[in-house]
Specification:
Elements: H1 14-26, E1 47-48, E2 70-74, E3 80-82, H2 84-88, E4 93-100, E5 105-116, H3 117-124, E6 132-137, E7 142-146, H4 147-150, E8 156-161, E9 164-165, E10 175-177, E11 190-196
Parallel strand pairs: 1-5, 2-11
Antiparallel strand pairs: 2-3, 4-5, 5-8, 6-7, 6-11, 8-9, 8-10
Bound molecules: ligand MTE and molybdenum atom.
InterPro entries: OxRdtase_Mopterin-bd_dom, OxRdtase_Mopterin-bd_sf
Organism: Muricoccus roseus
Protein name: Oxidoreductase molybdopterin binding domain-containing protein
């Protein structure tokens, strides 16, 4: 059930959120299988799409370039707070990866351009007690990760998709992409990454979704 301490942003589509909450309660789409990411490209219970579905809380904030900042704070030696211009002056990197959404669709070979997550984290100098992150977006969405799942070379703070600036509906101007976990762990319109010592579940994690969300283990829902 919805955690009253995490009611979610105002203006979200309550019915849609309630439906996804019910899926978690019912364990919908669970196959009970796991798979080996080295051998099976498609995780259990997923089906391949070639379009790119849009999923969010129904709030798609228009984030101007003056509003588009990124902060990395919390348990760090050197908090990072970068304007859009400062972010754009950093080296750009490319990644190609697959997307796996918990609502069952997967999409192969997405080409991204953006900023290295590992470089930005290194710049912030995490303190030894930092073990998790909580992330905030401009629509009020939050999600959490173990720091080790964020600090991986394949992750990207994406500004471009297939050579074009990331559209507003897909989280432009800046979104995180964490391809080894279900896509709800990849916040669109990202604003802040806070390093913390103890895990703090986010929007979907308090609504029955798994804390980690590994698609190969079919970690759709919490037990
Ligand atoms: N800020 C924000 N990020 C978000 C969401 C959201 O509602 N708000 N939804 C998540 C979910 S459930 C999915 S599946 C993906 C969808 O990204 P897409 O719309 O680009 O396919 O974004 C994730 N990141
Ligand atoms: Mo999702």
């Amino acid at each position: 059930m919805t955690d009253p301490t995490n009611p979610g942003p105002q203006g979200m589509k309550e019915k849609l959120v309630r439906t996804k909450e019910r899926w978690a309660e019912e364990g919908r789409l669970l196959t009970g299988n796991s798979a080996d990411p080295q051998r099976d490209r498609l995780p259990p219970g997923q089906r391949l799409v070639t379009d790119w579905p849009v999923l969010d809380l129904g709030i798609q904030p228009a984030v101007s370039e003056t509003a588009a900042r990124l902060d990395i704070d919390g348990l760090v030696e050197a908090p990072v707070s970068l304007s859009w211009a400062e972010l754009m002056a950093l080296p750009q990197e490319e990644r190609r990866n697959d997307i796996h959404c918990v609502t069952q669709w997967s999409r192969y070979d997405n080409d991204w351009r953006g900023l290295s997550v590992t470089d930005l984290l290194a710049r912030a100098r995490p303190r030894p007690e930092a073990r998790f992150v909580t992330m905030e977006s401009h629509d009020g969405y939050t999600t959490n990760l173990p720091l080790a799942d964020l600090d991986r070379p394949e992750n990207l703070l994406a500004t471009h998709w297939e050579g074009k600036p990331l559209t507003r509906q897909h989280g432009g101007p800046l979104r995180l992409v964490v391809p080894h976990l279900y896509f709800w762990k990849s916040p669109k319109w990202i604003r802040r990454i806070t390093l913390i010592a103890q895990d703090r579940p986010g929007f979907w994690e308090v609504r029955g979704y798994h804390d980690r969300g590994d698609p190969w283990m079919e970690e759709r829902y919490s037990a």
